[in-house]
Design goal:
Elements: H1 5-23, H2 30-46, E1 57-62, H3 67-83, E2 88-93, H4 100-109, H5 117-120, H6 125-136, E3 157-162, H7 168-181, E4 189-193, H8 199-209, E5 219-223, E6 230-232, E7 248-250, H9 257-260, H10 266-280, H11 302-314
Parallel strand pairs: 1-2, 1-4, 2-3, 4-5
Antiparallel strand pairs: 6-7
Helix pairs in contact: 1-10, 1-11, 7-8, 10-11
InterPro entries: Cell_Envelope_Assoc, Rossmann-like_a/b/a_fold
Protein name: Protein ydcF
Organism: Fusarium oxysporum f. sp. cubense (strain race 1)
C-alpha cells in the first residue's frame, strides 16, 4: 500500500486525537491525584455526610501489559499516603484474559521485573502486579479478613486484590464486589488507573456499576499515567515498503527510550485506537445503554469520529 507523506502526517494527527480522547487523562500530577481522591471528601465532611468508615478514597489499578503504569501508580500512591492523614484503598484488578500473555512477555523483557518471570507465569494479572508490589515496593497486600473498614488508623494504605475479571466491564463489577466485601460500600472517590487506550471506557464502566448509588455516587477520575502520542519517522527510506505503522514513532516527551520500549508495537497501538471508538458508541453494536449496557453513555465528539475515519482509512480498514 502506497502511503504519501501528507497522508502519514494526517494519520498521525488522527491517532493522537483518538489517543487523547480515549486516555481521558484527568490525573497527571500528585496534586491532581490528591484533588481527585479528596475534594469530594471535604464537601461531605462539611455536610456531615461522611460519618462512616464505609466511605473511603479508592484507587483502582487495572491489569495491563504496560508496566510503567504500575511504577507510576504505586510510587505516587505511596508518596500521597505518606503525606496524608486520610486512608486510601488500592484495589488491583485483573484476571486472565485474551491479552494476559502480553503481560507475561512484558515482565520477561523488563530490566528489573524479569527476575519474577517464572514466578508469575500463568497467574492472573492482579497477582502479577501483587508480586511486583510486594517484592519491589515492599508493600503488604490485605489477606484473609473480609471486614476491614475502620481498621487501625495508622494503616493508611489498604491493598486489595480482584483476580477474576477478564475485561474492563468486569473490572468494575468485581472491584465493587471486593470493596463491598471488605466493608467499603460507599466510596466517595474512585480514581481508575488503566491502560490509556481504554481508560475512558473503563471509567464509564465504573460509572455504570455505581449508577444505583444515586445521590451517593462516587466521584470518578481517569488516570492513564500518560497519553501515547505518535509522530512521523524522522527519516523515511525513499522506497520504504510497509503499512502506516512502519512510518510512525512514539513521541512522548516524558518518556525515555527504555520506557518507550515497554509500550505496544506501533501496529498494535493503531489497532487498539481504531477498535476503541466503536466500543464506546451508544448504539446496538457498542457497549453503551443502547448496546451491551456495560458502560454509561459516552459523548464522542464529531472531531474524534472524523479522526477515526481518517485513521481507519489510512490503515486500509473498511469504516462503516
Amino acid at each position: 500500500m502506497d502511503i504519501f507523506p501528507d497522508k502519514v502526517s494526517k494519520a498521525a494527527d488522527a491517532a493522537n486525537i483518538i489517543s487523547e480522547f480515549v486516555a481521558h487523562e484527568q490525573v497527571c500530577t500528585l496534586s491532581d491525584l490528591h484533588r481527585a481522591l479528596f475534594r469530594s471528601s471535604a464537601t461531605k465532611k462539611q455536610l456531615n455526610v461522611k460519618t462512616s468508615p464505609v466511605s473511603v478514597a479508592v484507587v483502582v489499578l487495572c491489569g495491563s501489559a504496560i508496566l510503567s503504569i504500575v511504577d507510576t501508580v504505586i510510587s505516587s500512591v505511596m508518596k500521597l499516603v505518606e503525606a496524608m492523614d486520610e486512608p486510601v484503598v488500592l484495589v488491583i484488578t485483573g484476571g486472565i484474559g485474551h491479552s494476559t500473555q502480553l503481560l507475561y512477555n512484558a515482565v520477561a523483557r523488563h530490566p528489573k521485573y524479569n527476575s519474577i518471570t517464572g514466578q508469575v507465569q500463568g497467574q492472573p494479572e492482579a497477582r502479577v502486579f501483587q508480586t511486583i508490589v510486594e517484592q519491589f515496593f515492599h508493600l503488604e497486600v490485605e489477606k484473609g479478613s473480609l471486614i476491614t473498614a475502620g481498621k487501625h488508623p495508622t494503616q493508611k494504605l489498604t491493598i486489595l486484590i480482584e483476580d477474576a475479571s477478564t475485561n474492563c466491564a468486569l473490572n468494575a463489577v468485581f472491584t465493587r464486589k471486593v470493596l463491598d466485601q471488605h466493608g467499603y460500600t460507599s466510596p466517595y472517590s474512585i480514581v481508575v488507573a488503566q491502560d490509556p487506550t481504554m481508560c475512558r471506557r473503563t471509567v464509564a464502566a465504573f460509572e455504570q456499576v455505581y449508577s444505583d448509588k444515586m445521590d451517593d455516587t462516587p466521584v470518578f477520575a481517569g488516570w492513564p499515567t500518560f497519553v501515547p502520542r505518535v509522530a512521523v519517522q524522522d527519516s523515511i527510506a525513499q522506497n520504504q515498503v510497509g503499512g502506516l505503522s512502519s512510518y510512525l514513532r512514539y513521541d512522548i516527551a516524558e518518556f525515555h527510550n527504555n520506557q518507550a520500549n515497554g509500550l505496544w508495537g506501533m501496529e498494535r497501538l493503531m489497532s487498539l485506537l481504531v477498535g476503541e471508538i466503536p466500543r464506546m458508541r451508544d448504539d446496538q453494536n457498542g457497549y453503551g445503554p443502547r448496546g451491551k449496557g456495560s458502560i454509561v453513555h459516552v459523548d464522542i465528539p464529531q472531531y474524534v469520529e472524523d479522526a477515526w475515519m481518517i485513521l481507519g482509512d489510512t490503515l486500509g480498514q473498511k469504516m462503516r
